[in-house]
Design brief:
- The protein is of the alpha+beta class.
- Helix content is 49%, strand content 17%.
- It has eight helices and five strands; from the N terminus they run H-H-H-E-H-H-E-H-E-E-E-H-H.
- The protein has a five-stranded mixed sheet with strand order 1-2-5-4-3.
- Strand 4 and strand 5 form a beta hairpin.
- Helix 7 packs antiparallel against helix 8.
- It is flat, with a radius of gyration of 20 Å.
């Protein structure tokens, strides 16, 4: 299976064209990024190691997306009595992290290359107790008339070689800034609590070893990722059993 899984577009024809787009930014996002990241005099990227102007476009995109997700969470809680979303975190990539990523990609540190190569300047992470809930939210995002899904990379169905598991979705979010309507890319990562725990520890180790993790630790990490996956499957089976028992109690009048 490809790492870019396409949801059933036949049931959402209005978004088919959006899904077929690449992850390059629209003109309005590109221009706003240049104003925020580049010196207006010489065009240098992140002079003094910081944003030239606050990246308001990305802040507004994250706020808009979080409002959409919170609305879905309230609907679920109203209908089911609980929300399958454990927590939501947002972040805007720091200039140092952006420059490091460009260097790892072997790409020139320029505004043009930044806009084309870095699609996750605005990021959101959504964590769930159970893996099936990840795909329930994906379907709701896909159904939203305001949000456009640009691509999906499913590292839950096909984990990375190191064991990393998460669902990545690049979403185009409508934003109005200074009276101008535009669309902004936000990368959404959706994972379970077990996946998030593993990814957090793996990040700590990568930082400590400057991404040069010894082979034996890589093997241990992969093994731990497998254990996290087994935990997800076990907890999902337990939930199914509990729900089944609840249904039996209701039918018997208990």
């Amino acid at each position: 299976m490809s790492d870019r899984i396409q949801p059933d577009r036949t049931s959402h024809p209005e978004q088919t064209e959006a899904f077929l787009q690449q992850d390059t930014p629209e003109k309005s996002e590109r221009e706003a990024l240049v104003r925020s990241a580049c010196d207006p005099e010489d065009g240098s990227l992140f002079p003094d190691g910081d944003w030239v102007q606050p990246p308001l476009l990305y802040r507004h995109a994250l706020e808009k997306l979080e409002e959409e997700i919170e609305s879905i969470r309230r609907e679920w809680k109203s209908a089911e009595g609980f929300s399958p979303i454990e927590h939501i975190k947002t972040r805007i990539k720091e200039p140092a992290s952006i420059l490091n990523k460009l260097e790892r990609l072997g790409v020139e540190a320029s505004a043009e290359r930044l806009a084309d190569q870095i699609h996750d300047i605005a990021g959101m992470r959504i964590v769930f107790p159970f893996v099936t809930d990840v795909y329930l939210l994906l379907e709701r995002i896909w159904q939203s008339p305001d949000l456009h899904v640009l691509w999906i990379r499913d590292y839950i169905m096909e984990p990375k070689p190191n064991g990393y598991r998460s669902l990545h979705v690049l979403v185009s979010v409508p934003v109005t800034l200074e009276g101008v309507d535009c669309r902004v890319r936000v990368e959404v990562q959706m994972r379970t609590l077990a996946m998030d725990f593993w990814a957090s520890l793996e990040h700590i180790l990568l930082y400590k070893y400057d991404r040069r993790v010894p082979e034996h630790l890589e093997q241990e990490l992969a093994s731990a990722a497998g254990a996290a996956g087994e935990l997800d499957h076990k907890m999902l089976a337990l939930r199914s059993e509990v729900l089944s028992l609840s249904d039996e109690d209701e039918r018997s009048g208990k």
